[in-house]
Amino acid sequence: MKLKCPECDGDIEVKEVIEGEIISCNDCGAELEVSKKKDGSIELKVAETEGEDWGE
Amino acid sequence: MPALSLLYDRIRTEEKVLINSAEKKGVLLKPIDAKEIHLTITDFSKERDLFGDVALERCVSHFRGLHLTAALESKGITVVNSYSVSSICGNKMLTSIVLAKNGIPTPKTVVAFTKEEAMRAAEEMGFPSVIKPVFGSWGRLIAPLKDRETAQAILEHREEMGNPLYQIYYIQEMVKRPPRDIRTVVVGEEIVASIYRYSAPEDWRTNIARGGRAEVCKLRDEDAEIILRAAKAVGGGVLGVDAMEREGGIVIHEVNSTVEFKGAMSVSEVDIPGRIIEYALNLIKR
């Protein structure tokens, strides 16, 4: 499936991903989170950036 | 109704393998994005239809996961790990206190609440020592205090940092150790995997998140016993116990409550996610 990067509008080929997974855009390098819309279709959102409390 | 839920805010390798493992075992596990839910906390009706009986809290953001855990526990849902365990493990000072109180070998640690007093503490401890934020992970902002000048610079930087938790100055002796530490994954009362973590060539910290390398570690019986005691002391559950080797035996410096086991999985034959799922299922049956 082909989707658009929300950051740079580049084309991203998405295969076998699960909701919540992070992929990066080959064009601009943005980290994108795979998200499901209400109708069940997949969209890409700009992922959260590392917070001070991230980790184990 | 799902049997288990997995609360996440980012799907790392660990969350992916947990989801796959449940699927393989035929366990109904519902992944729930913590960023996309809200909970009424003044109404204690059970929300088991959504979360199941047991929730695996796997948020990468510690405070998000911790508060979510409290909200779910208030609704009678068992969370792995519990609020109490997560709050102890999420704070290095509380962890040190619990370890020391339970007679578990741990590095000498001092806490101070102003820059000036932190300097006195560092001088008393002697150089070099290590300063660590009480919260946070992946070795973030952990710094060696090599001498008086470095200590002064680091403490001044700390003082300027916005988050007040950075002004809790947690200073620890620099343990003379080989360039590795030991990460042990404990599930319930059992050790499921143990690895050496070697620091990356350009770093002194051993965190896999900093590029550290994993190797299988065969624990000595006496070390395994200390590690299990440390896990029990913080309240038990699914934990990553970190130890350093010093002359005379290991010391425990950290216990992680949202354990990352990608490194351990890469070298260990044990089905770590499978063991975690089984542990969670057993909590339902109780």
UniProtKB/TrEMBL annotation, chain A:
Signal peptide: none annotated. The lineage of its organism: Archaea, Thermoproteota. NCBIfam families: carrier_LysW_Arch. This is Lysine biosynthesis protein LysW. It comes from the Archaea. Gene3D superfamilies: 2.20.28.160. It comes from Thermoproteota archaeon. Transmembrane segments: none annotated. PANTHER family: ALPHA-AMINOADIPATE_GLUTAMATE CARRIER PROTEIN LYSW (PTHR40393:SF2), LYSINE BIOSYNTHESIS PROTEIN-RELATED-RELATED (PTHR40393). Pfam families: Zn_ribbon_LysW.
TrEMBL record, chain B:
Pathway: Amino-acid biosynthesis. Its cofactor is Mg(2+). It holds the Pfam family RimK. Residues 96-281 form the ATP-grasp domain. SUPFAM superfamilies: Glutathione synthetase ATP-binding domain-like, PreATP-grasp domain. Keywords: Amino-acid biosynthesis, ATP-binding, Ligase, Magnesium, Metal-binding, Nucleotide-binding. PROSITE patterns: ATP_GRASP. GO terms for cellular component: cytoplasm. It comes from the Archaea. The keyword Disulfide bond does not apply. One of its GO terms (molecular function) is coenzyme F420-2 alpha-glutamyl ligase activity. One of its GO terms (biological process) is lysine biosynthetic process. Belongs to the RimK family. LysX subfamily. This is Lysine biosynthesis protein LysX. It comes from Thermoproteota archaeon.
